[in-house]
Design a protein that fits this description.
Layout (H helix, E strand, L loop, with lengths): L7 E5 L10 H11 L3 E6 L2 H13 L3 E6 L7 H13 L4 E4 L14 H29 L2 E6 L13 H21 L4 E8 L5 H10 L3 H9 L9 H12 L10 E4 L6
Parallel strand pairs: 1-2, 1-4, 2-3, 4-5, 5-6, 6-7
Helix pairs in contact: 1-2, 1-8, 3-4, 4-5
Bound molecules: nicotinamide-adenine-dinucleotide.
Nicotinamide-adenine-dinucleotide binds next to helix 1 and helix 6.
Length: 259
């Protein structure tokens, strides 16, 4: 049986920043296969368009909203588009993330602000527009894609990323507590080392070789990087009614990396 039949889903960052499938695109495709109607929101129109085309080709239902989520009007636009299309949102996924390298001493204020705008403030501004609607319908599921880096020191140094993703988890728990009485749930997923186009671009800045991908895989107890489909399948649980009594949770999807 399909697990998201009739659910109105909005995914921020539903495209992929390079060839192949990232976490957001995998969620959009899997959720559509499971009967969800997917609003693909992305700052890159072409990337969102590719996701929508793939969904529609397979018989699913999807639409595009081209917007940068750090824009102050973005939350309002997301809610308006979802209302115009399908009368609202049942599942909201905040998937965007930005990483600038450097420890506290090396991180310039501008880089810090840029990372926090995307990883944290965008989510805060967005939920301020979506929560009143979810409260009025007395249900909703919000999923934040954080990172294992929020709770586990990685070999790479990127302080602004780790700290903003950590604050994103706290934001999800605050939302969960403040909105539980309205049957609105908010949970966080912490991907470990996932083989996405985004990760490849990041790796290529450090070292340009397949060797580095292999090294990355060998850091994981399971001896492999995760796939974006591992993230999508975990998110599907939070999106579906199977997790109706689960809120404020942190799900590590990391092949044992944090053990
Ligand atoms: N790959 C990993 O190893 C790994 C590990 C931990 C966490 N994550 C997290 O997973 C998420 C990324 O997953 P992905 O592979 O789908 O990423 P991605 O980089 O491919 O981005 C997905 C889409 O988000 C869009 N986007 C970026 N900034 C945006 C903005 N300001 N407004 C609207 N759209 C924007 C991009 O255009 C892209 O199409 C991030 O939150 C990242 O921090 C990834």
């Amino acid at each position: 049986m399909k697990r998201l039949v009739g659910k109105r889903v909005a995914i921020i960052g539903a495209g992929s920043c390079g060839e192949g499938v990232g976490n957001g695109k995998a969620m959009a495709i899997l959720f559509a296969e499971q009967g969800g109607k997917i609003l693909c929101i992305d700052a890159d129109q072409k990337a969102a368009d590719e996701t929508v085309k793939e969904i529609v080709k397979s018989g699913g239902e999807a639409a595009i909203l081209h917007v940068d989520i750090t824009d102050v009007q973005a939350g309002k636009l997301v809610m308006k588009k979802a209302n115009d299309l399908w009368g609202g949102i049942d599942v909201l996924v905040y998937n965007v993330g930005k990483s600038n390298q450097g420890g506290v001493l090396e991180t310039e204020l501008n880089d810090w602000k840029e990372v926090f705008d995307i990883n944290l403030t965008g989510a805060f501004m967005l939920v301020k527009k979506v929560l009143p609607f979810m409260r009025s319908q007395k249900q909703g599921s919000i999923i934040f894609i954080s990172s294992l880096a929020a709770v586990y020191s990685s070999p790479y140094s990127y302080a602004s990323y780790e700290i903003s993703k950590s604050a994103l988890i706290k934001l999800s728990q605050t939302i969960a507590r403040e909105n539980a009485q309205f049957q609105i749930r908010c949970n966080s997923i912490l991907p470990g080392l996932i083989d996405t186009p985004h990760a490849k671009q990041f790796i290529n800045k450090i070292k340009t070789s397949d060797e580095f991908s292999k090294e990355r895989a060998l850091m994981v107890p399971m001896q492999r990087q995760g796939s974006p489909w591992d993230i999508a399948k975990s998110a599907l649980y939070f999106a579906s009614d199977e997790s109706a009594y689960v809120t404020g949770n942190i799900l590590k999807v990391d092949g044992g990396l944090s053990l």
